[in-house]
Every structure is written in C-alpha cells, then in structure tokens.
Here is the input.
Amino acid sequence: MTIENLILIYLLAINVVTFIVFGIDKSRARNHRWRISEATLFILAILGGSVGAELGIHIFHHKTRHLRFVIGIPLILILQLLIILLALRFLEAFI
Here is the structure.
C-alpha cells in the first residue's frame, strides 16, 4: 500500500468520523443532553475532517448560528487545500 493510499484512507476516515460527531452533537442538542465540546469539533476539522465538518454543518443545520463555525470551518478547509497544493508543488520539484 502506498503512502498516497494511506493518506486517502486517513482523510476518508477522519471526515466520516467528523461528520458523524457533528450529527451526534446535533442530536444531543435537540434532546438537551451532554454535548460534545466546540474544541473537539474544531480539533477534528483541523486533523483533516474539515470536509466532514462542513457537510455536518449544512446537512444537520448544526452550528449555523455560530460565526466561529460558519467562518472557521471553511477557513480551515481553505488552509488545508492550500497546504496540499503547496506540498504537491514541492513534491513535483523533486520528481
């Protein structure tokens, strides 16, 4: 298995987990139960789950009134995409 495949598997897994965690938190919010911390939601996004977080925000209509999430999650996604693009350019120089 190549490093690229491992990275893709990791990104798929972290995004699925992040999406599910957003759904769980929304369900808990509706039922007035113990919630998942905002810090945990952001950490999952920073660890590569920003696409799952963005999907969770829109599909579950969760955290849509919190500017930290409405602005922060897309910014994390954009920064991650820029890092990936820069890393690919850097690697192209050596290949």
